Amino acid sequence: MTTYEVRSHTERLRNRVFSIVTDAIEMPGGDVVDRDYMVHVGAVGVVALDAESRVALVRQYRPAVRQVLWELPAGLIDVPGESLVGAAARELAEEADLVATRWDLLAEAHTSPGCSNEKIRLFLAREIASVPEAQRHERTHEEADLELHWIDLDEAVTMALTGEITNAACAIGVLAAAQSKARDWKNLRPANEAV
C-alpha cells in the first residue's frame, strides 16, 4: 500500500467546532501537493426507536444547504470528559425531549471524508420515555424550531432511498437500524465500545 507522507501541517482557521488545515503531502511519484480539509471535534447521533418500531426524526434548518432537513437527534462531542453514549443521551434529551434506558452502538461513519475528518458514532436507543416538561432543555437559534416526528422505520427507509432524507448520518442510521432489526439485533455492539 502506498504511503502518503505529510511534509507539513498548517492551521488556517480555528473555532470551537473545527479547524481548517493545509497539509503538504507527498504523492506517489514524488510530487508534493497541498490538500485543505476540516479537522472536526466529532459527533454522535441517535436512532431512537419506540415499541412500535417508529424512529424519532427531527426537522432542522441547516445554513450550509439553506434547507430544513430530516435528521436524527445528534450533536457534537464537545463536553470534556463526557462519554460518547453520554453525549448521545444528552443530544436525545436536548433535541427530542426523550430519554432511553437501552443503548447499543449501531454504526460509525466518516460523514464527508473528501473534505473533513469528521466521524459520527450512531447509537440505537430503545425503551424510550419523554423528558418531564420541567426538565426540558431550552432550545435556541436553529434548534428553537426543531420539530420531532415519529416515522415508521420502514417509511424512514423509503425516505432515505428516495432522497427525502439527505442527511448522511440520518440515512446511515435509518438503514443500519432496519438491517439490524432484520437480523434480530444480533450485529449490535456495546454502547461503550472503545473508539
Automatic annotation (TrEMBL):
<dbReference type="GO" id="GO:0016787">
    <property type="term" value="F:hydrolase activity"/>
</dbReference>
<keyword id="KW-0378">Hydrolase</keyword>
<feature type="domain" description="Nudix hydrolase">
    <location>
        <begin position="38"/>
        <end position="173"/>
    </location>
</feature>
<dbReference type="Pfam" id="PF00293">
    <property type="entry name" value="NUDIX"/>
</dbReference>
<protein>
    <submittedName>
        <fullName>NUDIX hydrolase</fullName>
    </submittedName>
</protein>
<dbReference type="InterPro" id="IPR000086">
    <property type="entry name" value="NUDIX_hydrolase_dom"/>
</dbReference>
<dbReference type="InterPro" id="IPR015797">
    <property type="entry name" value="NUDIX_hydrolase-like_dom_sf"/>
</dbReference>
